[in-house]
Amino acid sequence: MIQLDGGSFLMGSDYPDGFPEDREGPVREVTVGAFAIAPCAVTGDEFAAFVDATGHVTDAERLGTSFVFAGLLPEDFPPTRAVAQAPWWRLVEGADWRRPEGPGSSLDGRGDHPVVHVSWTDAGAYCAWAGGRLPTEAEWESAARGGLEQKLYPWGDELTPGGEHRCNIWQGTFPTHNTLEDGYLGTAPADAFAPNGFGLHNTSGNVWEWCADPFDSGRRAIRGGSYLCHRSYCNRYRVAARSGNTPDTSTGHMGFRVAAG
Questions:
Q1: Rounded CA gap, 155 and 24, in Å?
Q2: Alpha carbon of residue 83 to chain centroid
Q3: DSSP secondary structure letter of residue 251
Q4: What is the DSSP letter of 182?
Q5: Torsion of CA 46, 39, 260, 118, to 10 degrees
Q6: Are the C-beta atoms of 242 and 221 separated by less than 8 Å?
């Protein structure tokens, strides 16, 4: 865990191409107390240790389904129900944290990637077992900024400085063609890419991360964006961006990291 002293910082953004419904602005001064936060999102191997120790059954396992990005499914995968307003999401029977793309898939070779198909409830259970908790949004953003004030990304304002990719997001034409310029189609290892100024990896892209706070009356906040974010429709890989999902929902692009203090 990385120990941070806390203090005041400018939270949020007035980014002109953001999403007003996300309420990431206005920019305001926020103070957080001292806290600790993990340098990486919880991995599949770490979550497996938790399940082995506790017998925890995730919401996806209990419900029998979870949402998988269609581009990760085999071409001959049986037809499944798509999300009406986001048809690239497919509701797949048997998809869960052990089988990210449903039956026939596994964590082989991906144990060091962030665990996915975990709900807010599952994330909270892991954190309690690990002696921690989910970070608040203010803690998450303060840590994700890495000491930089009001920059778009954890490393500055330029997405690919010097042509270097520093996060795992979508390149090309979403959702039909990913040029894979950053090296990944789905998730990347939890410690992929250089850390920010505080030592945190992947606070932009890779997987959305659950936070403790409500997003609205029925959803919990998620931060950081994912491997599916693209400037054409979802530039929420900016460090101030936010979104939300219902606490029992799981998808192939949502994970979490542990905080304490």
A1: 19
A2: 20
A3: B
A4: T
A5: -40
A6: yes
Q: Are 64 and 102 in contact (CB under 8 A)?
A: no
**70: three-class secondary structure by DSSP:** helix
Both tokens assigned to 64: 């029998």
pLDDT higher than threshold 90 for residue 184: yes
Q: Residue 76 is which amino acid?
A: D
Q: Which amino acid is at 83?
A: V
What the block records as the tokens of 155 is 């490393």
Specify the pLDDT at position 18: 81
Mean pLDDT computed over 25-35: 97
pTM for the predicted model, two decimal places: 0.96
Beta bridge partners of 82: 90
Max CA separation in the chain (angstroms): 53
Nearest to 113, CA basis, from 201, 58, 168, 44: 44
Amino acid at 29: E
- Whether omega for the bond prior to residue 26 falls within 30 degrees of 0, making it cis, is yes
Question: Residue 240: which H helix or E strand, with range?
Answer: none
Domains of the chain: 2-260 (3.90.1580.10)
**Tokens linked to 85:** 């307003």
